[in-house]
Amino acid sequence: MSEELLVDIRKLSVSFGAGSRRTTVVKDLSLQIAPGECVALVGESGSGKSVTARTLVGLTGHDAHVDAERIEFAGRELRGLPERAWRRIRGAEIGFVLQDALASLDALRTVGAEVAEPLRIHARLTRRERDAEVLRLLDAAGVPEPAIRARHRPHELSGGQRQRALIASAIAASPRLIIADEPTTALDATVAAQIIRLLGEVKADGRGLLLVSHDLAVVAALADRIA
User: Fold this and answer.
1) Ramachandran region of residue 130, left (φ > 0), alpha (ψ -120 to 50) or beta?
2) pTM as predicted
């Protein structure tokens, strides 16, 4: 693998079930992503895009059968990693933005606590430093009045504000790769444009970006290459 690549996947196949009921949902997919590059994974609903994204963070599920010649991140082989190793990678090395922010954010925790979680796990900060960084991240993600919104729970925010908060959480520990799975689904055009600009800033900052989408307008705005 080239040292310049963040992600190098070769001939990935993922299936579920057993015996005659085993169903292959991803077959022989190869994908590479370099730092500062956005690669869009494009396909219709049900084509295996989200399964591919989840494979990169070890979240395909216990009943999944994952086969590949190579699944490397920053030169490290990801196949066969124990869950303890995955927990060190998620958030710190790879940030994951799911399409349903309301379901992804913990309904019982404040938004500030949600964004602080990866900092608490992966960064050596005092409580005061962590609180200040949470407000900075929410502000950078375009959340209005971050000091107020940080005390709110997800259901108290608009859809666009929740999505921005989810992105703030995903980039909190400065991961080298961000995976955004349908990040503008169900958002109105104005809010979607704001999310696209925010993800563009993430890419400009030198991080790799895997954009999972069936929306070609979003893809055209962000992607350097398409798979």
Assistant:
1) alpha
2) 0.88
